[in-house]
Design goal:
By secondary structure, the chain is α/β, with parallel strands linked by helices. The chain has helices at 3-10, 51-71, 93-105, 120-127, 147-166, 183-195, 206-213, 267-276, 284-287, 290-298, 304-312, 314-328, 332-350, and strands at residues 14-20, 25-33, 39-40, 43-46, 77-84, 110-111, 175-179, 198-202, 219-220, 233-236, 255-256, 280-281. The chain binds nicotinamide-adenine-dinucleotide.
Length: 370
């Protein structure tokens, strides 16, 4: 499909192709929708096989950011950038400062942050060229690692599912299968452990599991066996697309709530399949919005207690998604998309009325003025 057709199909506003021979930068910035505010979303660095693959990824990810922000009640739009390159070998100061220049050129229509393949250090180079970046280190006034807030959001989202499924949101004695033992899982497992849940965890790296077992007790499971675990709750928190045609038939889970992005290989098909099987699925972009809440907070002068408080609202947001899903007998994936679209339409609409003032204060307050 041609780029314009793709943009029209999914409602994107703008794609920016960035090419610079001196630094070797080849990047794509996709801005999906700015009706709620400036487009906010991280920069992914990956060795895409083709430029088309990179464009498709940027378009898909930026659209998810619009929905994530809308459902979380944030006043940001959806954007995402991808840098084509090997995150292990091709990173340097020049590359990220050059990228920062392009971001700066968008004058606040797009605010970037770290994502898969980029980290806080890379964003500090970007910060040298533009103020339109968030997720920078605590040492220079940023919010640092978003994982604790993401994990807390997943945890409360999981509890909201438990309440809907079993009438109590206590996870004491519940068996939870956690896929991935990385940054978010570490904090998630601590919450689960402290509440008395029985944890089954897997990772492709033994080292990660060893680190996790230093702070909590858990059963270790082989990566392929996690899908068949005799657990009531599944928390996919490694990489995306682990819920697909070959894994769903193995599930005995009653609830799925995890941190990974794009957990369903095919949102429509697999969302419906889980719904038909009676598995309560907490849509990924709803429960993992804590990361976005965290970086959005940085733009207003970061305080982790405020970010945590906001992440706590994921409990009610998940409850609402489940309510709409039950009332209309639709998959939770469809319900959350509808809630997002409604807010985009309603709140996006009032932004057309010029108020002459900014709703934000702090470092990037002026961004909200349109
Ligand atoms: P991470 O890289 O620290 O952890 C991911 C872990 O998953 C790694 O230890 C990796 O080895 C493991 N893994 C990868 N594939 C696996 C597989 N097939 N089976 C078992 N383990 C596997 O990443 P993270 O920051 O903890 O993020 C986890 C997921 O949550 C990612 O999908 C990320 O995009 C998403 N997410 C993270 C945040 C955040 O705040 N960090 C926010 C929103 C979404």
């Amino acid at each position: 499909m041609e780029n314009f057709e793709l943009m029209e199909k999914y409602g994107h506003e703008q794609i920016i192709f960035c090419s610079n021979q001196e630094s070797g930068l080849r990047a794509i910035i996709a801005i999906h929708d700015t009706s709620l505010g400036p487009a906010l979303g991280g920069t992914r660095m990956m060795n895409y096989e083709t430029v088309d693959d990179a464009v498709r990824d940027a378009l898909r990810l930026s659209r998810t950011m619009t929905y994530k922000s809308a459902v979380a009640g944030l006043n940001f739009g959806g954007g995402k950038a991808v840098i084509i390159g090997d995150a292990e070998k091709d990173k340097n100061e020049l590359l990220f400062r050059t990228f920062g220049k392009y971001v700066d050129g968008l004058a606040g229509r797009y605010i970037t942050a770290e994502d898969v393949g980029t980290d806080v250090k890379d964003m500090e180079y970007v910060r040298m060229e533009t103020k339109y970046v968030t997720g920078i280190s605590k040492a220079i006034g940023g919010s640092g690692d978003p994982s604790p807030v993401t994990a807390y959001g997943v945890y409360v989202g999981m509890k909201a599912c438990a309440k809907a499924k079993w009438g109590s949101d206590s996870l004491r004695g519940r068996k939870v299968a956690v896929q991935g033992a990385g940054h978010v899982s570490r904090y998630l497992c601590e919450h689960l452990y402290n509440e008395g849940a029985e944890i089954y965890v897997t990772d492709i790296y033994e080292e990660k599991l060893k680190q996790l077992l230093e702070t909590i007790k858990a059963h270790i499971v082989k990566p392929d066996e996690i899908y068949e675990t005799d657990a009531e709750i599944f928390a996919p928190s490694g990489l995306g697309q682990s819920i697909n045609d070959s894994t769903i038939p193995k599930f005995k889970f009653e609830i799925i709530a995890g941190a990974a992005n794009n957990q369903l290989e095919d949102e429509t098909k697999h969302g419906s399949l889980l719904h038909e099987k009676g598995i309560l699925y907490a849509p990924d972009y709803v429960v993992n919005a804590g990361g976005l809440i965290n970086v959005a907070n940085e733009l207003e002068g970061y305080r982790q207690d405020r970010a945590m408080k906001q992440a706590e609202s994921i409990y009610e947001i998940v409850q609402n998604v489940i309510k709409v899903s039950k009332e209309e007998n639709i998959p939770t994936t469809v319900a959350s998309n509808r809630i997002a679209e409604k807010r985009l339409k309603n709140i996006g609409g009032i932004r057309k009325i010029y108020s002459g003032d900014s709703k934000f204060s702090g470092r990037l307050g002026e961004l909200a003025r349109r």
